[in-house]
Design a protein that fits this description.
Number of helices: 16
Helix content: 25-40%
Radius of gyration: 25 Å
Largest sheet: 6 strands, parallel
Number of strands: 11
Structural class: alpha/beta
Mean pLDDT: 95
Shape: elongated
Strand content: 5-15%
Length: 381
Amino acid sequence: MGPLKGMRVVEMAGIGPGPFCGMLLSDLGADVVRIDRKTVARGRSLDIFVQDHTDTTGRGRRSIALDLKSPAGIETVLALIERADALIDVFRPGVMERLGLGPDVCLARNPRLVYGRMTGWGQTGPLAKAAGHDMNYIAITGIQHSIGPKEGPPSPPLNLVGDYAGALGLAFGLLAGIYEAKGSGKGQVVDAAMCDISSLLMARIWGLRAQGFWKDERGTNTLDGGAHFYTTYQCADGKWISVAPIEAQFYAELLKRAGIDDEAFKHQWDRALWPDLKARMARHFKTRTRDEWCALLEGSDACFAPVLDMGEALEHPHMRAREAFIEMAGVPQPAPAPRFSRTPPEVRRGPPRPGEHAEEILTDWGFEASAIAALRADGTI
């Protein structure tokens, strides 16, 4: 059942990082209950994506749909929160307070609760109440400016660096808070802002910048495609490969296996030569197809890998050997990670329909049968 078996988490339904955080905790064994709005269960989904079997980040938990405009609905959420270790709040600052579910109210009902707040800008600051999305949150951190071609515009790294790195940060914060609460008996609020957590990912880059090894000019640095030995190249068939031999011995291995014997390449760290060496290497890698380069370089210490599309990734021998992907209801998706030797994680169920497990959840979480019947009778669930 995973290392988090026995942990109970209440997740307010939302999009992006909130569901991803819930998925991570559920994959590792936590009992994650998603609170859907009853109006959504009846009609249009809150999400811009369809909430069905293709909702991969919705996997693993159960759903109860409640009328959050009714006192009985809010009281039911609070009763669940009383029994929970953590709460995932996915709304903009102030929304939970207006619902009557703010931190003060929830911690009064459950003093050991870890109240996780997932936002882009954070709970405080001039932008706290403004709308935004992943790309906006990483734009003010220096991250987006650092990604993309030298001559082109900054490139959005999908929504991985803000949304999903933010969700990882929230999961980390929730687990740290739960660990601390076991000793102190006291919960607290975890303010997980994407602009904070994504900035944290740049810690080493800030260090390199302070040392003079990183410039704010995009496409001129070691890790941003500026170096000829840390970038991608197109092959004769139009497909792409990646090379990343930073260390001297790996760089030498790449040159040897790729058949590059030009004396200029011996000056690996002469930055003035990088544009010319990159152009020469680009011409060299265009002489063979991607498969031909894989036959020469893959599995060696040349720090090489083909650049695969998502369909190809499913079939790569290494990913298949590690069972890195699973399939649920015909939908391929990443398997739970990381891996544990004694308490392996698993996906226990597919994504729920809003409200699908109302009575089952309430029963499992200790509600009396008469109370459940009353909630059903008055339309709260």
